[in-house]
Design brief:
heterodimer; B: four-stranded antiparallel beta sheet; 13 strands
């Protein structure tokens, strides 16, 4: 593993305006807005609204940021950067691993900022709960990093950027991360069950809600990890052969 | 380390659909040679370079670089390459991108030395997206040097450089080659091939049409032009002279392309004693290049 490349990738993501504005700024703003509307109101699952809103918007920010890995990969394909790397001893898998790990690494500060916003506005959890929520959300980001990579290997930079941006809307909305599913029409809540974001939200709430079905959430997210991963491997091989 | 060739191409062939981009190219380059791969656009230079670097698989033929496959040579840092429009990361600084490529090699040059050799000291903190065309070429050159290669492959290296940039660039290449390393550069600038290469490989429609020292390639097109004012002579008269291959007559001034200019001048003076203003010149590489690449139109 090339740690120089990994740290450079992390630096590139963190200093991009995309990261500050969309990945962190937007979910924080949404949390402050929705959090203040619903406050400590107890929702259908018995949890106060502010905790849930914080967890779900943390999930939204971190998964969206990971998905944007694809935009950078697509841009680099358009520019011919992978071809340039083929003139170095670095191999394709090394490149893909750096992309996924950097997406995972930057998810941590995203989650941390949302948690800080929660703390500052009076969200209450036990220390163990804070830790478990962090870990389950963070691990749940992995499928999104790989999914982003899979999307990124199919298009050009600007197209993939637009597609990813457009995708985050239904993923956030219908995945129930923006507003609780209970307030949405029934059909939407049915559709939600097909979205990885819904299961990420469930996994994030599990340390508090004990709704059960954590095993199923893990299974669905694993599916959303394995399928894109197979696409990535296959696509990257073809891509490399053609370059 | 053995003393085999720096690289060898045997019967290298590449088709793109029905077009044969490279057609049976065989070239062997010894270590320490500086070779120009010369040809007009579309001659197959870039495709040949891509196959030499393992970026493109040949449809037929074989490539060996320092005795191994191109990929092995890249992995061992034996070959460094500077590609035409090679990608850089626009949001990354020159210092960062050099450090990154250095980090991929097992036995690299120190980043500071790479920066110095490419003349990038004052640009270390500049983002690649803010560089001029010539500066970007220097960064690509730096990336090619990172692995401390024995063979440097350059595809149209000076295309975006100004005159000073070119001079500085070739000075750096000479320094590199002086240490007994090999350089192959693809170019359509004849002057560069003439000035900097020990040897020229001339490519046309994917075929090697000439290969040898610059002077030899020039001579291969029967090197001289005889110009004179010849009162009363017709084109037919002049074409009949010994050693003359083609004749052009303009406003009383004859221009004779000669396979043997000595025989031609004796014959001219014997038949036309009044011939005046006589001038005999060797063909420059420019003319040799045009003659060789124009052959097909005549054939």
């Amino acid at each position: 593993m090339n740690t120089t490349y990994l740290s450079l990738e992390i630096k590139r993501i963190v200093r991009s305006p995309q990261f500050t504005i969309f990945t962190i700024g937007m979910p924080v703003a949404m949390y402050l807005l929705f959090g203040s509307i619903f406050g400590k109101l107890i929702m259908a699952n018995g949890l106060p609204a502010d905790v849930q809103t914080m967890i779900k918007l943390a999930a939204y920010g971190a998964s969206g940021g990971a998905l944007f890995t694809g935009t950078r990969v697509a841009q680099e394909r358009t520019d011919g950067w992978q071809r340039q790397l083929r003139l170095t001893p670095m191999r394709g898998p090394g490149y893909l691993v750096v992309k996924v790990l950097s997406a995972m690494a930057v998810a941590l500060p995203v989650l941390a900022v949302l948690f800080l916003a929660g703390l500052a506005t009076g969200v209450e959890m036990t220390a163990a709960q804070w830790g478990l929520v962090l870990v389950s959300l963070w691990l749940g980001v992995l499928p999104f990093a790989v999914l982003g990579l899979a999307i990124g290997l199919f298009g050009k930079g600007d197209t993939v950027g637009a597609v990813t941006g457009a995708l985050m809307m239904p993923l956030g909305m219908l995945g129930g991360l923006w507003i609780p599913l209970e307030v949405l029409p029934d059909w939407m809540s049915t559709v939600a069950h097909f979205f990885p974001t819904y299961w990420l939200g469930r996994a994030g709430l599990e340390p508090l809600a004990h709704q059960g079905g954590l095993g199923f959430a893990v299974l669905v997210l694993a599916g959303w990890l394995v399928v894109p991963a197979l696409v990535v491997v296959r696509r990257f091989r073809l891509d490399t052969a053609r370059l | 380390m053995t003393g085999g060739p720096a690289f060898a191409l045997h019967g290298l062939t590449k088709w793109f659909g029905s077009i044969t981009a490279v057609d049976g190219v065989s070239v062997e380059v010894a270590r320490g040679e500086v070779v120009a791969l010369l040809g007009p656009n579309g001659a197959g230079k870039s495709t040949t370079v891509d196959m030499l670097l393992g970026l493109t698989e040949p449809d037929a033929g074989e490539v060996t670089v320092h005795g191994g496959s191109p990929r092995e040579a890249v992995d061992q840092g034996l070959v460094g390459a500077m590609m035409q429009n090679g990608a850089l990361l626009p949001d990354v600084t020159v210092g960062e991108i050099v450090a990154l490529v250095v980090s991929t090699h097992a036995k690299p040059l120190p980043a500071a030395e790479v920066i110095a050799r490419a003349g990038l000291e004052h640009l270390v903190k500049r983002r690649c997206g803010k560089l001029s065309g010539g500066e970007r070429q220097r960064v690509r050159f730096a990336l090619a040097l990172a692995g401390d290669p024995r063979l440097l492959v350059l595809d149209e290296p000076t295309a975006a450089m100004d005159v000073d940039g070119r001079r500085a660039f070739w000075a750096a290449i000479r320094e590199f080659a002086a240490a007994g390393r090999t350089v192959l550069f693809a170019t359509h600038y004849l002057a560069e091939a003439e000035d900097y290469a020990d040897r020229v490989v001339l490519l046309r429609h994917g075929v090697v049409v000439a290969d040898g020292p610059v002077a030899e390639v020039r001579a291969a097109v029967s090197g001289r032009v005889l110009k004179a004012v010849v009162p009363g002579a017709t084109e037919a008269d002049l074409a009949a002279l010994p050693g003359v291959t083609t004749v052009q007559l303009r406003a009383g001034r004859a221009e004779l392309a000669c396979a043997d200019s000595d025989a031609a001048i004796r014959g001219l003076l014997a038949a036309h004693p009044l011939a005046a203003d006589i001038e005999i010149t060797a063909l420059g590489l420019e003319e040799a290049f045009l003659a060789l690449t124009a052959e097909e139109a005549a054939a």
